[in-house]
């Protein structure tokens, strides 16, 4: 299992949102590059970055900061937020991004998804952000009409090989992941599965490992000191 620390960037700062609410943010640092170096020094082999401004506007807004993080850390970066056309994808590929995360566009435009999977399959991840079983879009700001499991099956048919699942109702709450939904996902697909949202203890991570989850993204629990990154990386082996 891979442990992936998260950095959410909004207005150039490192923040965390409560349940994806842009009006409920906590600023943890004015320098995301320093935070990225901190996670690297604690053993991170990959960092998960979300451009929150981009998720809202529909285009990358913090690419310069992300480029600096790549330059300074020299470890793989996966990035999402506002990546909704080929121009944005090429910009990130030119910036040496390791993995590119698609959200809204992957669900709204099957033809586009097929095109990018054919071109960049090894680089693409699709993020599925769910609220009460319904997938969210536009930076979690709007409900869609798509249900989780049927959508996953469609993604599998297109050729997607990795998904990130986030339950938006627990994201940023330091409670626990939605194990029932995760178990249902694992039963219905062989896609690589990365989990985000609500993770607050090593015991929860161990449970996810037993559920054959391939990776976990940890955010607020690291910033609040609930989980020590170096310890959890060593713990899961």
TrEMBL record:
Q: What are the catalytic residues?
A: 8 (proton acceptor), 129 (proton donor)
Cytoplasm is among the record's keywords: yes
Note the SUPFAM superfamilies from the entry. Ribulose-phoshate binding barrel
Recorded GO molecular functions are:
1-(5-phosphoribosyl)-5-[(5-phosphoribosylamino)methylideneamino]imidazole-4-carboxamide isomerase activity
- Tell me which Gene Ontology terms the entry assigns under biological process: L-histidine biosynthetic process; L-tryptophan biosynthetic process
Q: What is this protein called?
A: 1-(5-phosphoribosyl)-5-[(5-phosphoribosylamino)methylideneamino] imidazole-4-carboxamide isomerase
One Pfam annotation, family name? Answer: His_biosynth
Which family, according to the similarity comment? Answer: Belongs to the HisA/HisF family.
For this UniProt record, the keywords arranged alphabetically read as follows:
Amino-acid biosynthesis, Cytoplasm, Histidine biosynthesis, Isomerase
Q: Which reaction does it catalyse?
A: 1-(5-phospho-beta-D-ribosyl)-5-[(5-phospho-beta-D-ribosylamino)methylideneamino]imidazole-4-carboxamide = 5-[(5-phospho-1-deoxy-D-ribulos-1-ylimino)methylamino]-1-(5-phospho-beta-D-ribosyl)imidazole-4-carboxamide
HAMAP family noted in UniProt:
HisA
Q: Where in the cell is it found?
A: Cytoplasm
Q: Which GO terms describe its cellular component?
A: cytoplasm
Q: In which pathway does it act?
A: Amino-acid biosynthesis; L-histidine biosynthesis; L-histidine from 5-phospho-alpha-D-ribose 1-diphosphate: step 4/9
E.C. no: 5.3.1.16
């Amino acid at each position: 299992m891979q442990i992936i620390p998260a950095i959410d960037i909004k207005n150039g700062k490192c923040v965390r949102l409560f349940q994806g609410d842009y009006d409920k943010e906590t600023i943890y640092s004015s320098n995301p590059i320093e935070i990225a170096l901190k996670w690297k020094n604690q053993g991170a082999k990959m960092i998960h970055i979300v451009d929150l401004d981009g998720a809202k506007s529909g285009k990358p807004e913090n690419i310069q900061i992300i480029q600096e993080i790549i330059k300074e850390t020299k470890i793989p970066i996966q990035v999402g937020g506002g990546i909704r056309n080929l121009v944005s994808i090429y910009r990130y590929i030119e910036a040496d991004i390791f993995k590119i995360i698609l959200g809204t566009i992957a669900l709204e435009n099957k033809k586009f998804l097929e095109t990018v999977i054919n071109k960049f399959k090894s680089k693409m991840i699709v993020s599925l952000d769910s609220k009460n079983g319904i997938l969210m879009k536009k930076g979690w700001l709007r409900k869609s009409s798509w249900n989780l499991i049927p959508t996953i099956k469609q993604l599998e048919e297109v050729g997607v090989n990795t998904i990130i699942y986030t339950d938006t109702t627990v994201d940023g709450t330091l409670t626990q992941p939605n194990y029932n939904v995760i178990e249902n996902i694992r039963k219905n697909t062989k896609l690589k599965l990365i989990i985000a949202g609500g993770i607050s203890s090593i015991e929860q991570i161990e449970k996810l490992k037993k559920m054959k989850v391939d990776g976990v993204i940890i955010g607020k629990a690291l910033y609040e000191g609930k989980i020590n990154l170096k310890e959890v990386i060593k713990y899961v082996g």
